[in-house]
């Protein structure tokens, strides 16, 4: 009898010790979802492990523990929170980030904290291609067709700059080349389509490694590019018809105020007026690569805003005109193409997400 009691007591002591060692569970949920997408994370006791919303940690010793939250661009992180863990129980903590940046912008921080800003583009529909009797238009902009975006997306506020390229890629393709200025805020040039795709791959890897949201950056489709360029307008340029070309100089770096003015290079981004959705230099400065294969007309083009990838072609689409080009190339419907290995002093790109 005594032995049985002693055995029971030992078992109880062992069980209590096991429970104490096991500790409790901590689960943290972060709101809103936009903050989570932007990279909101949490950690316990500054252990250096940044966890996602909804993740939990088991076997946390009983007692008080500090939960801290990752600082992310454009959001105010919650203050550190002390939680009390109880053996054998789950402690649920819910915290909310507060948005403090522009509602239509998001920022990706490149190495060295170099910012890459994107602006939001709303869901909706538009007519892609040239309009009837549009001045200076070309047959490769036909047939005009409706494209519908079921969801909004993000697009670069500016063309990718030399500073952004060098921060992420560690190279300077424009070095030693002509018709380019040594300014980190001017567009990265001498960038082929293949080069632009390599940047996108490196960017998504960087986003993943630094917990800055989803790795969904890409080149824009041609439809996305034109939709974002037009910003709801139906005119030749996104600032109007401008038949006498009296306003183009306020919005674009083009032949007259760049090449013909003795400034034969891509200029600092964002120095001209933006369109209605906050996109700068969509017309002029440098041509911008899109994801699509080039086709000589829009017959059978996708109508959902996706890139036209089948059938494959021999060259890729570029849009927007450059500092060397005259007004026809600066139109919202204007198109260009080049093989994916081509690079030049007036070819660059912007990203989408």
Can you walk me through this structure?
The longest helix has 21 residues, at 2-22. The protein has a four-stranded mixed β-sheet, covered by helices on one side. The chain has a three-stranded mixed β-sheet with strand order 3-1-7. It is of the alpha+beta class and 353 residues long. The termini are far apart. 19% of the residues lie in helices and 24% in strands.
Rg (CA only): 27 Å
CATH superfamily of the largest domain: paralog of FGE (formylglycine-generating enzyme)
CATH class annotation of the largest domain? Alpha Beta
CATH architecture of the largest domain: Alpha-Beta Complex
> What is the number of helices?
7
Low-confidence stretches: 5-20
Spatial arrangement of strands, main beta sheet = 16-15-14-17
Tell me how many strands there are.
17
Q: What distance separates the N and C termini?
A: 73 Å
Number of domains: 2
The fraction of residues assigned to DSSP E strands is 15-25%
Shape: elongated
Compute the average pLDDT: 93
State the CATH topology of the largest domain.
paralog of FGE (formylglycine-generating enzyme)
Could you give a short account of the major beta sheet? 4 strands, mixed
H/E series: HEHEEEEEEEEEEEEHHHHEEHEE
Residue share in helix: 10-25%
Secondary structural class? alpha+beta
């Amino acid at each position: 009898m005594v032995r049985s009691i002693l055995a029971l007591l030992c078992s109880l002591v062992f069980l209590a010790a096991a429970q104490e060692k096991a500790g409790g569970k901590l689960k943290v949920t972060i709101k809103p979802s936009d903050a989570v997408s932007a990279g909101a994370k949490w950690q316990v006791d500054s252990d250096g492990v940044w966890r996602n919303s909804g993740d939990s940690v088991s076997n946390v010793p009983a007692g008080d523990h500090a939960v801290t939250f990752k600082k992310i661009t454009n959001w105010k992180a919650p203050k550190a929170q002390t939680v009390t863990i109880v053996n054998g129980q789950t402690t649920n903590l819910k915290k909310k980030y507060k948005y403090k940046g522009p509602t239509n912008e998001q920022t990706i921080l490149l190495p060295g904290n170099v910012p890459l800003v994107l602006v939001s583009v709303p869901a909706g529909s538009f007519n892609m291609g040239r309009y009837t009797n549009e001045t200076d238009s070309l047959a490769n902009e036909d047939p005009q067709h409706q494209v519908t975006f079921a969801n909004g997306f993000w697009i670069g506020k500016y063309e990718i700059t030399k500073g952004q390229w060098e921060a992420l890629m560690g190279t300077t393709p424009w070095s030693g080349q002509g018709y380019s200025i040594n300014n980190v805020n001017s567009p990265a040039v001498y960038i082929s389509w293949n080069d632009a795709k390599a940047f996108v791959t490196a960017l998504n890897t960087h986003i993943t490694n630094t917990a800055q949201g989803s790795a969904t950056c890409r080149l824009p489709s041609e439809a996305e590019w034109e939709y974002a360029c037009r910003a709801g307008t139906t005119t030749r340029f996104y600032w109007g018809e401008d038949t006498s070309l009296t306003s183009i100089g306020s919005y674009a770096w083009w032949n007259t105020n760049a090449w013909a003015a003795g400034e034969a290079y891509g200029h600092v981004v964002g120095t001209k007026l933006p369109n209605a959705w906050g996109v700068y230099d969509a017309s002029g400065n440098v041509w911008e690569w899109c994801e699509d294969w080039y086709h000589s007309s829009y017959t059978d083009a996708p109508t959902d805003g996706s890139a036209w990838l089948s059938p494959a072609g021999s060259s890729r689409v570029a849009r927007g005109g450059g500092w060397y080009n005259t007004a026809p190339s600066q139109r919202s419907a204007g198109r260009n193409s080049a093989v994916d290995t081509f690079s030049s002093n007036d070819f660059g790109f912007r990203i989408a997400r």
